[in-house]
Amino acid sequence: KNQVEQSPQSLIILEGKNCTLQCNYTVSPFSNLRWYKQDTGRGPVSLTIMTFSENTKSNGRYTATLDADTKQSSLHITASQLSDSASYICVVRRLSGGSYIPTFGRGTSLIVHP
Amino acid sequence: DAGVTQSPTHLIKTRGQQVTLRCSPKSGHDTVSWYQQALGQGPQFIFQYYEEEERQRGNFPDRFSGHQFPNYSSELNVNALLLGDSALYLCASSLRQVYGYTFGSGTRLTVV
Which residues in chain B are closer than 8 Å to A36, comparing Cβ atoms? Predict the structure, then answer.
C-alpha cells in the first residue's frame, strides 16, 4: 500500500533553534519527493523536490535529504524564525498509467516561539 | 503573473445540496488536480484533468465530479453534500501532468 508517514506530528521550538522533520514512505514506483510548507488556511508551497538520484537539496535555511534505499527523507530547518510556524507536508509521487500520482503525508505542525 | 486562483474562498452549504468550486490554473499550465484536505490532515487526491479529460482519480465517490474547459480552467462539483465533505478544497496546476505543481489557496467548504 502506498503510504507516507511523517514524524513528529507536532513540534514546538524556540526561535533560532534548528529542527529536523522526518518522512518515511512505501510509495512505489518512486518518482520524486517534495516537501511543502503550508500556512494555516493556505495552499501548500513547494520547498524542495528530490528525485531518486539526489541525496541532498537545499533552499535557503531548508535542507532536505533523501535515502532511496531506506525510503526515508528529512527536512532540516536551520536558525528557525517565527515565520517558519506552519505545517510541513511530505509528498511522494509515483508513476501510474502515464500520470504522476501524489501521496501526501499528514504533515508536521511546527510552532516557533520567540 | 497570476498564480492559481480559486473561488469562492469560503462557502457554507446545507447537507444534501450541490456545490461547484472553480479553479484557474497558473499561466502556462495545462493540468489541474483537485484535493480535499480535512482539518489536521494532509491533502487527499480527488482527480486530475488534462486536455479536458479526467486522467486519474483517487478514492472518492461518484458524487465528486469535475470538468476542464478549453482555457484549462476547471470546476469541481460535489452532489448530495454530506457533513463529512466539510474541508479545504485545493486546486493545483502543472504543465503536462509532470512538472512542478502550484497550489491555490483553497476553498473552505462547510456543510451544515
Answer: 103
- Are A101 and B56 in contact (CB < 8 Å)? yes
Contact A89 B42 (CB under 8 A): yes
Query: What three-state secondary structure class fits A35?
Result: strand
CB-defined contacts A:B, below 8 A: 54
Q: In whole angstroms, what separates CA A66 from the centre of its chain? A: 10
Q: What is the dihedral of CA B29, A101, B60, B68, to 10 degrees?
A: 20
Using the beta-carbon criterion (under 8 Å), do B56 and A42 form an inter-chain contact? no
Whole-angstrom distance, CA of residue A50 vs CA of residue B107 = 29
DSSP for residue A21: E
* pLDDT tens-digit readout, B18-66: 999 999 999 999 999 999 999 888 899 999 999 999 988 888 999 999 9
Q: Please count the helices (runs of H) and the strands (runs of E) in chain B.
A: 0, 11
